[in-house]
Amino acid sequence: MLAAMKKKIILTTLLLVFFSLLLVSCQKRAAVFVDIVDISPPEKDYSRPLPPGELALRKITDPAEIPDYTLACSDLEGLAQAIDNSLNYMAKPSSQRFYPYGDISHEQAVTTLKELKKLVTSGISPAEMNKALREEFDTYISVGCDGAGTVLFTGYYTPVFEGSPERTERFRYPLYKTPDDLIKDEDGVVLGRKGPDGGVTQYPPRKEMEESRMLDGLEIVWLADQFEVYIVQVQGSAKIRMPDGHIETIHYDAHNGHDYKSIVPQMVADGRISSKNISLKKMIDYFREHPDQVELYVNHNPRFVFFKRGTGEPRGSINEPVTPFKTIATDKAIYPRAMFTFAAVDLKKPVGFALDQDTGGAIRAAGRCDVYKGVGDEAGELAGQTYREGRLYYLFIKPDSTID
After folding, report:
1. Hey, what domains does the chain have and what are their CATH numbers?
2. pLDDT mean values, one per 10 residues, the chain (404 residues)
3. How large is the C-alpha radius of gyration of the chain?
4. pTM of the model
5. Which of 3, 157, 165, 236 could lock 252 by a disulfide, CB 3.0 to 4.6 Å apart?
């Protein structure tokens, strides 16, 4: 009996951890629809924190350990623009606060991106490009979750929902802009609520904010489904199709300072959804059949997210557009921002080269990486198929190298 109880506790714990990874995605991104076919004890702890003072990257000194980039060199679509987006970020004075990274200076990081842009647009053959990357650049490998380079790759994408700029009989559930009294620091970290005396206190949790109607007048768009509102809040961005047909991008702006708490464990505990084959899509279907239960469950999550209108593609945490298959999200506390990477992972559609331009609430520690898959249902299906171990590499120009 004790063994059975122990097994049940282990499986329950794994379920909670797994959904914290899947449903707490980047606060500047959209939902990930992932079907879980089986929940079995993982061999590794992908969220293992780094030891104090340890960097997430280790420089490769043995040429035999450097990967062969040839295949990735034949898939460069969108890469030049993604590099330009990173260069736009690195041109901002604020980017200098995050360098040096180890022995990589800000100047070397910028030079790396410029030289890579030359290579990507040079028109040379994949074999020639592979040779240049191996000879002119230093390769660093992520230490991963186990010190041996193991990284868990997952996916995310941007959904498209129907909405309206005004409240109507159909569109009754709002997304809100950031209140004037919410205080953030220069890095966007929420400090709290500014009081009339100038002091800063914590913002109320979700339920209190909803019930007090303190956000009346701050509505920026209305959706037809209350749970869709919650999805956008949790995932951080979406594209909204307005009644006249035009599409508006809604970007993350801030939150109320409370930690995210998944609603999945409570739904499972209450028998609303099964602990097997769970997906966000199944949750959406459940709440469409039981709309009266949405408020009950979403109030288990005290975090509340605010938005701003925008145009174009959703933006990553460096406030630059994300590019399908060419943007990844990592823990920006331990990885170098905006840098050029190589994802060595066996996926249905390979990733190859990508820029590290995003982050997420669940993307913590060196053992996690999210790949942006794009917009719409097809991208969602690809995101849902992304759950594989691999290796993550970063490239930096050698101090004495330039690309002719």
Report:
1. 2-40+159-310 (2.40.240.50), 57-155+317-397 (2.40.40.10)
2. 44 43 43 34 75 92 96 96 98 95 97 97 97 97 95 86 96 96 83 88 94 95 95 84 93 87 89 78 89 96 92 86 94 94 88 91 81 84 82 94 64
3. 22
4. 0.78
5. 236
